[in-house]
Amino acid sequence: MLRSLRLKRLLQFNGKTLYNVSRLLRSEPTKLTTVESENESEAKLEKKSMSKAMKAYLERAQAHDEFMKQQNYEFQIGKRHLANMMGENPETFTQDDVDRAIEYLFPSGLYEKRARPIMKPPEEVFPKRKAAEFDETGRPHHFLFYTGKSNYFNLLYDIVEHINNLNKYEDSMLNKNSYPDPNTKLQLDGYQWMDKEALENVLIEKIIDKEYTNFVNAIERLYNHPYSYRIKEFILKYRKPLMSQKSTSDLPKLQYDSDGRSYVTVYECLRKRARGHVTIRAPGSGIISINGKDLMYFEDTQPREQVIFPLIFTKMLNKVDVEAYVEGGGPSGQAGAIRWGISWGLRSFVDDKIIESMRIAGLLTRDYRTRERKKPGQAGARRKFTWKKR
Amino acid sequence: MFKKPRYIFRYNKNPKSLITSFQCLTTAALPTERIDSFRCVINNPLEQNEGHIGQFYRVPEDVVSKLFSQGGLPKSFRIQTKTFAETCLMIRKPSIDIINCIKNLDFSKPVPRFVLYGQKGVGKSLSLAHIVHYGYEAGFLLVHIPWLGEWMRRPKDSSPSETKEGYTNINLDIASWLVHFKNQNSLLLEKANLKTTQTYKWTKREETVANSNLMDLVDHGINRIKFASDCVLALLNEIKQLSKSGKCKTLVAIDGFNAFFYPETRIRTEKKEIVHPHNVSVTEGFLSLTRFDWKNAVAVLIVDELAIAEKDQTSYFPRYLLGKDGFEHLDPFIPVLVNGYSNKEFLSCMNYYRERRWVQPLPGLDDELSVISSSNPYKLMQLCAPL
């Protein structure tokens, strides 16, 4: 009786003592049964009901571990085989080499990259699993366990806590009569919030669209706080650089011709069936030549506007000379190709901010659309013949 | 008071509905007579010089109705002048150059021939209009064909000539040209003592006797359309004689002159055969006026791609457009290239449009328009219409 009381009191303690309790339980049931038989059934029932979920989890975890071990072993063997096939040293064979070898051995014409054959470490291929969320007694570790999405709501909780802390800090600063400096405000242009899928991977939880927007709203609010720079680390964890940030780093270097003018040539400017190359020279006076003619090469206004749009957008109209050669396709395609070439080449002449705005304006995006083929049994690509009853 | 009409103006670009709204605008805009850099204070072509290049001068309404009521200003430009409630021509280098040449000309020497050429829409016809206006003010007898393409490409009628075997008459067009000629030269024909040198017998009962007024010849052509072509031939012959004898100075101005040498006209005989321009009866007369074998005259001609069939519009150079015959006919002549707007002219034109409330003042508009239009005046006019 005394013991059971002690037990009960112990059980009310926090997680640290739980380990001892379990030891007690494991070592003493025989004694318990012998000393006080009336409590026997109660304790057994308690133990049995407590361990059921845990037991199932442990079994699953063990099976998963074994499976992963096996997969890992097979992956290592496979990698060595692959290295031998490629005639390279298996010890120094890296994942990059694996990818290259797979691409070489199993060439695939599939458009979707994720549909092509891969060989990745099993950790990347098989989704991560959550660790045990409850102890052997069935008590959840996490205080938000019963929300069903503990990591997600914990994240929201953290964000709000950060906001509160910053507000407190702001108040204290206001008391000292000091205001936030706008220059130190967190500037994360060229970044965007982690998308839903990536967030799910981080949280190891599935979330719905509404929950994702809630997250974005919350963190946006945190980000816009004048003192948000104090928790830059936290915010950056959920911010991802935009695609082009990488590509801007490998801008083509300016070359110099015999007159000492800088120039950049963009090859492979493609749009529809047109292809061409564009040379941009600076300093210039706004001379545009297309296949040796001036802008009147295009008879209509629309393609002419297309060609000069990037120049107007970057305010470089009278500062650079453009020389373009295009062939194939029609006026619209040719103008589109030149427009892309000019935009792509202008990146070397303007600063990052303008490049970023050009990207947002869609000037740096290659337009991959082409004519859709006509289908037999139809009037055109999509259009059907006129329906006639008979 | 000023803003309201402007509002009406912006949304009523249809010239017909504009006139009413314009009357209140013009009263507000014109009497101030601001001297803008793009407006020329001197409206008389006799006094204009190189310093005025790029500026607009206003052609008085009575002169416009006299000189250009039957053509001479391109249609799209005429519509615009109606909208703007004034006829303003830009003083441009080719026209001012030619005018200066004419001013310093020794009229006792053989006739010089100026040939204006240039791409489509650069303002050749309006340069000619400027020169015609100068000729009018300077007291020249004007022999002005507003657009030869009208005769060769879009004839109103055709009939075989009765006087000359194998020739074709386009009498309706010629008669309306006679009206044009009469309009342009009515003052001169009344004032100056221009008499015919020989008797022309039209029918048994009709004749124009020698030493009668030149106006009689013109009137006869207008009243008896059947004889219009013959009248014109006689008239041109008389003009040549009169100039030679020093009784008058003549300005020959022909727009689309190369149509005289382009073999495919749209004039057809009764057998539906295409008529060569040299077989059109009046051609001979006008060609004789563009020869150098007379004096006291000057010829200003335009060679234009638009005067020939579309399939052959590949080059705007005189040698191509005139062909071998035409080139030899005119040789030696003074070619005058008409270019698109220079920067100064472009700016002046845009300022003019802005003053007329035709385009809205927007930042960066000029740069964009100048590139898109390639400084081609006609293209610019088209682009500005919906702005």
Automatic annotation (TrEMBL), chain A:
Q: Which InterPro entries does the annotation name?
A: Ribosomal_Su5_D2-typ_SF (IPR020568), Ribosomal_uS9 (IPR000754), Ribsml_uS5_D2-typ_fold_subgr (IPR014721)
Subcellular location per UniProt equals: Mitochondrion
**GO MF assignments:** RNA binding; structural constituent of ribosome
Query: What's in the GO CC field?
Result: mitochondrial inner membrane; mitochondrial small ribosomal subunit
Q: Does the keyword ATP-binding apply?
A: no
- Residue ranges of region Disordered? 371-390
What protein name applies here? Small ribosomal subunit protein uS9m
The Swiss-Prot or TrEMBL record describes its family as follows:
Belongs to the universal ribosomal protein uS9 family.
GO biological process entries: translation
- Please give the chief subcellular localization of this protein: mitochondrion
Q: Which organism is it from?
A: Agrilus planipennis
Identify the keywords attached in UniProt to this record, alphabetized: Mitochondrion, Ribonucleoprotein, Ribosomal protein, Transit peptide
From TrEMBL, chain B:
According to its record, what are the GO cellular component terms? mitochondrial small ribosomal subunit
> Which top-rank group of organisms is this from?
Eukaryota
A Pfam cross-reference name: DAP3
Give a GO molecular function annotation for the protein: structural constituent of ribosome
Localization, UniProt? Mitochondrion
- Coiled-coil region list: none
Key word Mitochondrion present in the record? Answer: yes
For the biological process aspect of GO, one term held by this record is: apoptotic process
- Keyword Ribosomal protein, does the record have it? yes
Q: Which UniProt keywords apply?
A: Mitochondrion, Ribonucleoprotein, Ribosomal protein, Transit peptide
* Family of the protein in this entry: Belongs to the mitochondrion-specific ribosomal protein mS29 family.
Q: What's the protein name?
A: Small ribosomal subunit protein mS29
The gene name on file is LOC108738322
